[in-house]
Design a protein that fits this description.
This is LPXTG-site transpeptidase (Sortase) family protein. Keywords: Hydrolase, Membrane, Protease, Thiol protease, Transmembrane, Transmembrane helix. InterPro entries: Sortase (IPR005754), Sortase_A (IPR042007), Sortase_dom-sf (IPR023365). GO terms for molecular function: cysteine-type peptidase activity. It is built from 11 helices and 10 strands. It is an alpha/beta fold. The protein folds into 2 domains: 112 residues; 215 residues, Sortase (Sortase, Chain: A, Beta Barrel), CATH 2.40.260.10. α10 crosses α11. The chain starts with 18 loop residues before the first helix and ends with a helix.
């Protein structure tokens, strides 16, 4: 089956064990601070607060009808304070909800653009490339994890982006005409396709045969390979394995059906090496694939580029300095904690809008009803 069509199903089998043994086994508890838990806890908290306010109101109302003038005046005074507190709580809730929506909108805007990665320290003598063989060898090329995704999945993948790129990063892809600058990641893990350009075969090498790269398409979102549809014949594609820079020129940009697998086949003897970029064309479940292919032009060693093509290294965000340790591709998280929070909030809202709208309406209705009653 071509990449992008998941024909696998998860089957879990088990066998009975003694109850006493089962009782002693560790339990993986759900995260209490999940999005659903926070929403439900907020609703419960507000409901309890307004029940307390309502009961206090009834109590003060009863006291305000007392024959004792002192008790009556004191109760009326406290009722006024209660109304002020309720109004303040209502305003606080309103401001908080507006703040949540603003943060979510900001997170949504962040999700609509590629995450800009910091420069990669390749090392003075391309030491980072020495870690590449192990990553390629351990990559998953079966594609069992590949599944349809949306913008919420894209945001979720950013949580683990630094580790994902450090574990599987084997190069970089750079297309200047479309401002595409992505890590090349070994293997077809679903997370790889959400964080960069994923290699199709274990034995593929830049500058040889058919070097195939895949990435997910987030419908109507300008991330990953979205812009490859705009590539024109003759435009350049740059790729590096941290030892050399390989230059290709686009000769094909087309849409094919998912059954047309000849685009990923190896080159025949005598044919020029090419690079093939693949993404889905259309929304979730589409049977079409966008294919861009470029013919190999030449190789520039990084050591030579350091002397003659410094602007290119800067554009590709490659630094030939330092000594990379343990194959670290990204030293620092590419996304700040605040930006990640904004994106995750937006992703949760997009994943289930009603789960957000209903609590928002309820939280606003409760104080309105209370103020109307009193």
């Amino acid at each position: 089956t071509p990449p992008g069509i998941n024909t696998y199903r998860l089957l879990v089998n088990g066998h009975r064990i003694p109850y006493a043994k089962a009782e002693k086994m560790p339990i993986n508890k759900r995260n209490f601070w999940s999005y659903q838990s926070i929403v439900l806890s907020s609703l419960l908290f507000c409901f309890v607060v307004f029940m307390i306010l309502y009961l206090l109101h009834r109590y003060f109302m009863k006291k305000s009808k007392s024959e004792d003038e002192t008790i009556r005046n004191k109760a009326k005074k406290r009722m006024k304070h209660l109304i002020y507190v309720t109004r303040a709580l209502f305003v606080t809730l309103l401001v908080t909800m507006i703040g949540v929506l603003v943060v979510a909108i900001y997170g949504y805007l962040l999700m609509k653009q590629n995450t800009e990665l910091p420069p990669v320290q390749v090392g003075e003598t391309s030491q980072l490339a020495s870690y590449t063989p192990d990553k390629i060898l351990n990559g998953d090329y079966e594609g069992k994890e590949i599944a349809s995704v949306n913008i919420a999945n894209y945001a979720e993948a950013k949580k683990n982006m630094q580790k994902n790129v450090n574990d599987w990063g084997v190069g970089k892809l750079y297309i200047p005409s479309q401002e595409i600058n992505l890590p090349i990641l070994a293997g077809l893990k679903n997370e790889n396709l959400l964080n960069g350009a994923s290699t199709f075969r274990q034995d593929q090498k830049l500058g040889l045969d058919n070097y195939v790269l895949l990435a997910h398409n987030i419908y109507e979102t300008d991330v990953l390979f979205n812009r490859i549809s705009e590539l024109k014949k003759g435009e350049e594609i740059y790729a590096t394995d941290f030892q050399d820079i390989y230059i290709y020129k686009v000769f094909e940009n087309k849409v094919v059906r998912d059954t047309e697998v000849d685009v990923v086949e190896r080159r025949k003897e005598g044919e020029s090496p090419i690079i093939t970029l693949i993404r889905c064309e259309g929304n979730i479940g589409t049977i079409y694939r966008r294919i861009v292919q470029g013919e190999f032009v030449k190789t520039i060693p990084l050591s030579e580029a350091k002397q003659t093509s410094k602007p290119l290294l800067q554009e590709m965000k490659l630094e030939m300095s330092g000594t990379p340790k343990n194959g670290i591709y990204l030293k620092d998280p590419p996304i700040s904690v605040f930006h990640l929070f904004c994106m995750n909030l937006a992703a949760n809202i997009l994943a289930d809008p009603m789960q957000v709208l209903i609590p928002l309406v309820l939280l606003l209705v409760l104080p309105i009803l209370f103020l109307a009653i009193i």
